Structures
1.
Amino acid sequence: MATLKKTIQKNLLVIITLALSTGVLLYFFFTTEGIVTLGEIITKLRLRWLFMAIASAVLCWICEGCALNLLCVHLYPNWNYNRSFCVGMIGLLYSALTPFSTGGQPMQIYSMRKMGMDTGKAGSIIAVKTLTYQVIMVGYSLVLVAWKFRFFQTSVSNFSFVTIIGLISNSAFIFLVALFMISATTTNKLVNAVIQFLHRIKLCRHPAERYEKIHGQLEVFHNASKLMGNSIKLYIPVLVITVFQITLNSLIPYFIYRSFSMHEVPVTTMVAAQVFVAMVSAFVPLPGASGGAEGSFYIFFGMFFGSAILPAILLWRIISYYSNILFGAVFAYIGKRYNVPDKIVE
């Protein structure tokens, strides 16, 4: 009994997260006709397209490991892909289990340190990897907004507001990081001026603490850029892999759509919808964006799936969320075999 209690306490966050996300799905299914629709769809499911959705998720994991490995090998030539893949899966696991996906990067740094990497170098690698992903995601979103803005503006209520807030928030952060790398003094003055203004209009209660937090985050990226260098040969492949990864992840709803024997909606429209779902879900302060992810998927994809939207949400969450937790836990355990006592892997 004591062992069971200790196990529950150790994995309490995982249990709460899974219970919350599962509860949202079950609520939708049993308070609507979702379970009936799912039964009807299963008999007509086109397995080839469903397999492609699953393969896309697996390829996303592989891309995560590849991008991470390029950065790791840059500082540690003897580092290997197996380590990078396990670290990537650990990041996906803890991002799925923590609010705002905040636990992924710290656990990756911790795991890389356990595998023998210097903490500062591990932090620099993860900082560059994170910034790269954010830059590509914002750029991807800007292109799709320009391309599909009119369609979604007329089809989704409050689309303009949600999109603008998401793009401004992410773009502002990237702009600050870039400016900080060019001129730390100018950035500090700008950040302090904005925080003081927000404090005067009662939108920021503790200006000094907020400034220190933002400054600390910018300093991490600044130090990372100095350590990693400015090699174009390093960053171009990482950028290309990241674009491929985001595209694969955005194709999962389309493959699910085709597995339901539907084909009227263009693939580009559904890719755009998934990118917007990811952008909206990022603002949900719950592990795995529980509730927000399902809700935003319902809003953006309901017009495509019609009565089959709830089964679509179920399959999408299983493939793109629950599988990250399941296989992330598996590879977190496997990754322990690469741990070393104190030795640095040069």
2.
Amino acid sequence: MARVSVEIENHIARVTLTRGDKMNALDPEMMQAIVDAGESLMDNEDVRVVVLSGEGKAFCAGLDVMSFGIHAGSDPVELLMPRSHGNANLFQQVVMVWRKLPVPVLCALQGVAYGGGCQIALGADVRFAAPDTKMAVMEMKWGIVPDMGGMALLPHLTRSDVIRRLTYTAAPFDAAQALDWGLVSEIAEDPVAAAMALAEEIAGKSPSAIRAAKALIGFAEENKGDPDAVLLEESRVQSTLMGKPHQMEVIAANLQKRKPNFG
């Protein structure tokens, strides 16, 4: 059974979790399918933005606990410690692949985004949530800690006391609270439509500048304690864009009051 679908049209990649009958819960096959979907887009120059969503009544209910019986008796060190995907293991790459993609990733949430589902959403650049969406850092319910990249992402999004409260309690919280804490970007009646509208806007911008902007923002986040390095990187990135074909097309389009055509 297919776990994830990928459709590309007008420079927008629609990535959909397709295990709706199981609330898109994460079994081993789905985890691998999510990683494969993200990595399949990594070198696709035609893609300018990704919209990530889940079919059915939930974005992702988190780990399908029963399906991981295959790991019973496994050595956790051997299972988790190898870096099979650059700086990440497979479980972490399910989330981090979206942050590693060179183009923006917009996530549409509905129903629940629990545990691993919550962490996948955090890997996106922007998150739209339906008003009744529930989220949770759920791992403490099972006596474990977030281990799919959540701790690499949460400190960039919200306060330390919020991270601690959510991690210690595993308590669900609603979309309004998530918005207040900075864990979702916007509440929308139709989060997929909202994500697609933003995707279409981004897809009309300079492809090289959008990719450069995502990389620069990531650099700034990782080096926020070193403003000198960030200032230098700003200048370096800008020098790769100025006067190049995409920028010249933007200038011409603005002067001629038309949409740019990047080919």
